[in-house]
Specification:
The chain is an alpha/beta fold. The protein folds into 2 domains: 176 residues, Rossmann fold (3-Layer(aba) Sandwich), CATH 3.40.50; 78 residues, Orthogonal Bundle (DNA polymerase, domain 1). The chain contains 12 helices and 6 strands. A 6-stranded parallel β-sheet has the order 3-2-1-4-5-6, sandwiched between helices. α5 runs parallel beside α7. It is globular. The protein starts with 6 loop residues before the first strand and ends in a 10-residue tail after the last helix.
């Protein structure tokens, strides 16, 4: 039986909602500020894409952050500290999701086009269940709804393992990784797709790689905006997805190309690795 694309699994912040992936970053900076620790947005972005518990733990292990923590607490952090910080973080991130929950331009029309083609839509995310439950109805009101989802803590292992992808595939009743596309704006999300053995598409401009809101990007001189876009594209290319696009608005031609490659018997670059 001929193989073709039957499902697309999207990330959330920076991929389908929240242009520039700002909601998590602001919350992380505020979280550490509440502990008396200075952190930049750039530092907070580095582990983006992993689960939020792992993200906080990663940040606490930064030398610049760790030294501030030890100066305040006289001892290195423990897992219980990460648990406590996550409990503080979730409501902070809930507020930022409400502020930054707008769909990225092109998402609603893409979702409609996928439905018309009979393509299933799923999502995996580093967001916790509480955060995703807040986001799902916000997205639905704007015209974007998923058929399957998995979230941080939903599976024993998060990204970059394939476990959340596998869970989505089971929900959708599909089992051939070659018929899936994973679309994400972070390295852990791209690696998640590779681990599953599906096609991977990296989002360069609307997400974490560039990190500016659409308003901030549009306010820049054209030459500067182009320079930053090219840097983001190069950074995303270094993650070695099968394709790189600026935003999900550019996905349909990529899907057509993937179907052509499947007709020729080709497989994703990472297939079988």
């Amino acid at each position: 039986m001929k193989t073709s694309v039957k499902a697309v699994i999207f990330d959330w912040a920076g991929t389908t909602v929240d242009y520039g992936s700002r909601a998590p970053m602001g919350a992380f900076v505020k979280l550490f500020e509440s502990e008396g620790i200075e952190m930049t947005i750039a530092q907070a972005r580095i582990p983006m894409g992993v689960g939020k518990w792992e993200h906080i733990n990663f940040l606490l292990n930064f030398p610049e952050v760790q030294s501030q923590w030890i100066k305040i607490h006289k001892i290195s952090h423990t897992d219980s500290d990460v648990d406590r910080l996550l409990d503080i973080f979730v409501p902070m991130n809930q507020v930022s999701i409400l502020e930054c929950g707008q769909l990225i331009p092109g998402v609603a029309s893409l979702a409609k086009a996928l439905r018309e083609r009979g393509i299933k839509i799923g999502s995996t995310t580093g967001y916790t269940r509480e955060l995703l439950e807040l986001l799902l109805p916000i997205a639905k009101e704007q015209g974007y709804e998923v058929d399957a989802f998995s979230y941080s803590g939903d599976t024993p292992l998060g990204r970059p393992s394939a476990q959340m992808m596998i869970k989505c595939a089971r929900q959708l009743g599909l089992d051939n990784p070659l018929s899936f596309i994973k679309v994400d704006d972070t390295q852990p999300g791209i690696e998640e797709g590779k681990s599953f053995g599906c096609w991977t598409v990296g989002v360069a401009v609307s997400g974490n790689a560039l990190g500016l809101s659409l308003e901030e990007l549009d306010a820049l001189p054209v030459s500067e905006a182009d320079r930053l876009k090219n840097i983001a594209r190069a950074n995303m290319q270094e993650m070695q997805p099968d394709f790189v696009i600026d935003s999900v608005a550019d996905l349909l031609p990529v899907m057509d190309e993937i179907n052509k490659r499947l007709d020729l018997g080709e497989k994703p670059n990472s297939y079988g690795n």
